[in-house]
Fold this protein.
Amino acid sequence: MAGKLILKGILDPKDAEYAARTGVDAIVVSNHGGRQLDGAPSSISALPAIVEAVGNRTEILMDGGIRSGQDVIKALAFGAKGVMIGRSFLYGLGARGEEGVTLALDIIRRELDVTMALCGLRDV
């Protein structure tokens, strides 16, 4: 998304609505992994209200809590257009370097495929 205006760290529907009204290209629903405020709501719990507030005016991405293919499908089902994955990359990197990152992503992709199949879906 080079050259795009992306607003990250939104958890409040009013903030998201204002951002969409001002013309941002994308909003990232994120509690920053709970690192800044451990009492902040989870990204997935904030996602539906933000999607409802914004509608189709801007792209919604979700960051935080994506550890499996099931987490990906939940975020997409709640209206995110995509997810950001960080911690799984780091675990893979720490365990096996570049090969571990690839393996971590492959595991999430396979879990997503299985979850979609169990839901009767062929395409996200």
User: Anything to note?
Assistant: The chain has a mean pLDDT of 91. The helical segments are 13-21, 43-54, 69-77, 87-118. The longest helix spans residues 87-118.
